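Obj: model holo form, ligand = protoporphyrin IX containing FE.
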Amino acid sequence: IRYGEETVARGAGGETHQIARDGRTSLTTQQGIPVSDDQNTLRAGERGPDLLEDFHFREKVFHFDHERIPERVVHARGFGAHGFFEAYEPLSDLTRADLFQRAGQRTEAFVRFSTVAGSKGSFDLARDVRGFAVKLYTREGNWDLVGNNIPVFFIQDAIKFPDVIHAAKPEPDRGFPQAQTAHDNFWDFASLMPESTHMLMWIMSDRAIPRSFRFMEGFGVHTFRFVNAQGRSTFVKFHWKPKQGMQSVVWNEAVKINGADPDFHRRDLWDAITQGAYPEWELGLQLFDDDFADRFAFDVLDPTKIIPEEELPVRRVGRLVLDRVVDNFFAETEQVAFCTQNVVPGIDFTNDPLLQGRNFSYLDTQLKRLGSPNFTRLPVNAPRCPVAHFQQDGHMATMNPSSRANYEPNSWSPEEGGPREDPVRGFTTYPSTDSGPKRRLRPESFADHYSQARQFYLSQAPVERRHIVDAFTFELSKCERPDIRARMVAGLRNVDDDLARTVADGLGLPALPDPLPPAREPVRDLAPSPALSIIAN
Ligand code: HEM
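Output (holo structure tokens):
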């Protein structure tokens, strides 16, 4: 394009560049004004003061000053990649969710892996839970499966989330330790919360120091619902099974890797994808009905419990492939916003109190983190299907309703009146019957905190058990208060006496403390589950 003497080039995406004399893109200000000198500020005289008039300098520094946004309050350190989900078979008997209707159907996906406790600049090989958040851009809106690499959680009720995170993050007075469980506050809280025992077993196991993101499982944790076109509901638990298998490092290796290359996990994913070794996971489902839920030894709404795969096999229904790295880390990995409340028609929540609390928390924090209610306009967050609503304005409103009407009902013509509700395709909530007095009591069915912790421990191969014992001993040895160490060992006595004794010996406790009162007697003896051991897998 010729503008007088100047040439403007059009790029592949239709964008235009001003071209300097040597054929390269001209450097411009944000206002598009070509810049002649980016090395020197505008000054009065040879050595004189800078001039306020220098709009290029002021704009450049102003923008730099505002580059940072708050890091995520949890899962701050993460790494994302693009890919797709491919369904193996239609699941229309179970769900009307569009991505599960046709064999071979592909749905675009974005995945972000993360650690939980460390800050954005922490190291990758921390002993920690790994986030496994998947955004699926379906033809009926975005479905976010915001999971972890461990199938249970520390707490049963979202009201305890700020506490567990405060206890795990650096201590408020001294600001350390960073990304480690080795401190008094964490063990103080954990030992006072027996419901965290099952999760602690996983955290102290090899699962918490994966070899790379590619070699770990993912879990939706909560029980969700599938709802089919006839309105029939089936409970579902989601699993991601790595086709690469599962691998972990040992603590000794983790410490060395952290020192030598704190970016080890993100580099591994980047290298694998850029070299064409696309990592894959299969989506697995545990499907069950009300009868199974009633018969099951634990409450299916309790997020500190699993449903053993031996009892309810995992059905593999599709694969997730990561085949493209991001173009820009900040634009995509930092600005992506996952939220448990993003479900599509055919998928619904249950009354798991942790899930219900999460549904509030994510959107709330993202408004703070991304600074505008319009963050769904960011390309990484934008649905790939058409979007039409009457929400408008706010910071960075780039797509206000274009029709005459910005409310409904309205009596304008279809062209001027904008979108209408869609009772046929629209999301409908599963009409479960929930009633009872308002109360804050934990249900009795959530009370057994030890049986599955024991089942997990006993399911581990001898070397994996040794690692668990070593991890408890090492991490608790960093806890300076003897009473906290003793209380934790007292809790472990309800899991396995040998485990408790070995940890107590390792810590040099003067005497083995009495077990903590068991919250409730185990429901029944549970067989160790081979599926829980990495080695058995
Ligand atoms: C972030 C998983 C419990 C609040 C995340 C992320 C994951 C995750 C994977 C990172 C998302 C990303 O990569 O951007 C889980 C799992 C939980 C759980 C599996 C339990 C089963 C909770 C609870 C709360 C909570 C109970 C609050 C009540 C948050 C917040 C963020 C977050 C505020 C930051 C979100 C952002 O800034 O975008 N969680 N979480 N989480 N989670 Fe959770």
